[in-house]
Design goal:
Structural class: mainly alpha
Strand content: under 5%
Distance between the termini: 16 Å
Largest sheet: none
Number of domains: 1
Radius of gyration: 20 Å
Shape: elongated
Number of strands: 0
Length: 161
């Protein structure tokens, strides 16, 4: 019976540590699909810029792989996730700067340059930047064990021991 209980405690702790990164995993999935759709539309427009979202997609896959490995080997430092979010931030800020320039059609040849399209893109990019900032902050807190989830895990560990 104690062996089962010990195994249950170990699995519970593994799951708790893995769930520290839950929001990060969901946002990675969101940005993976966002880049995949952007690449698909760019390829449909026969644009060479499709390389950019495809490169972001590949970086997102590496980040996903890094997340999967966390289940067996818990680690607070996630270099691919940090790189992924930083590169996304740079790309999104660049896209925001090009929205109101002739470069707009270079990055979005499948959309007309109407005020509605510009506003929707600006909102999408702004919200994405806010999410990226929050995730980078969360990664920093996790790296330094200052996140709320870590405190809950410590409380749970004290309780079960």
């Amino acid at each position: 019976m104690t062996e089962k209980l010990t195994m249950h405690k170990k699995i519970s702790l593994t799951n708790l540590y893995f769930n520290r990164f839950l929001a990060i995993r969901y946002t990675i999935a969101f940005f993976l699909f966002l880049n995949l759709y952007w690449a698909t539309f760019l390829m449909g427009s026969l644009s060479m810029v499709a390389v950019l979202p495809l490169a972001l997609f590949v970086l997102g896959i590496l980040t996903t792989w890094e997340q999967i490995k966390l289940y067996r080997n818990h680690c607070n430092k996630l270099p691919y996730a940090r790189l992924f979010y930083r590169v996304l931030a740079i790309v999104f800020v660049t896209l925001m700067m090009t929205l109101y320039t002739p470069l707009y059609h270079f990055f979005f040849p499948f959309l007309k340059q109407t005020s509605d399209a510009l506003h929707v893109l600006m909102v999408l990019l702004t919200v994405s930047l806010i999410i990226i900032t929050l995730m980078l902050s969360k990664l920093n807190k996790i790296q330094h064990n200052q996140d709320l989830h870590f405190k809950r895990i410590q409380t749970y560990e004290e309780f079960i021991n």
